[in-house]
């Protein structure tokens, strides 16, 4: 479990729903923040937080499905729980295809929502960990020269079989030069072996 604080975002144009959900979540120890519209949420959203989103489908201006699509296009990884007062099969299918955790029709049991939130926050934690790993990998790989990146690609193609001699033949350089590049690559990436390189890039 991560030590980073988790938060539940609520986007619903009904003030009574927002107030009720905020009260219920805070009583159960969740940090929560509510917004009356998708625009308000997007203005305040911090994508670095481990979070999930409780999202009303039937909002004016930008519907829940439209906000889901917008977040997806922006590359934001946040699990979404849809809530709706007049849900239909097409909307629920579209939401789930878009990666929603669940699609709850009002009125719903609070225990059902809490279960969904716990699942969503667990998903969010995993997603954030993956994003952080990717960010760190990109930062490390940015230190490599174009030639070193070529060699990394060859090393990853068949880690247990690609020799310096074979890589050198493909790149028209000597095996000794490949060995020198390998040593610098491992040093820059802060690892000790090709096995660690493979693990790092998975």
From TrEMBL:
Keywords: DNA-binding, Phosphoprotein, Transcription, Transcription regulation, Two-component regulatory system. GO terms for biological process: phosphorelay signal transduction system; regulation of DNA-templated transcription. PROSITE patterns: HTH_LUXR_2 (PS50043), RESPONSE_REGULATORY (PS50110). One of its GO terms (molecular function) is DNA binding. CDD domains: LuxR_C_like, REC_FixJ. Residues 137-202 form the HTH luxR-type domain. The keyword Transcription applies. The modification 4-aspartylphosphate is found at residue 56. It holds the Pfam family Response_reg. InterPro entries: CheY-like_superfamily, Sig_transdc_resp-reg_C-effctor, Sig_transdc_resp-reg_receiver, Tscrpt_reg_LuxR_C, WH-like_DNA-bd_sf. It comes from the Bacteria. Residues 7-121 form the Response regulatory domain. This is DNA-binding response regulator. The lineage of its organism: Bacteria, Pseudomonadati, Pseudomonadota, Alphaproteobacteria, Rhodobacterales.
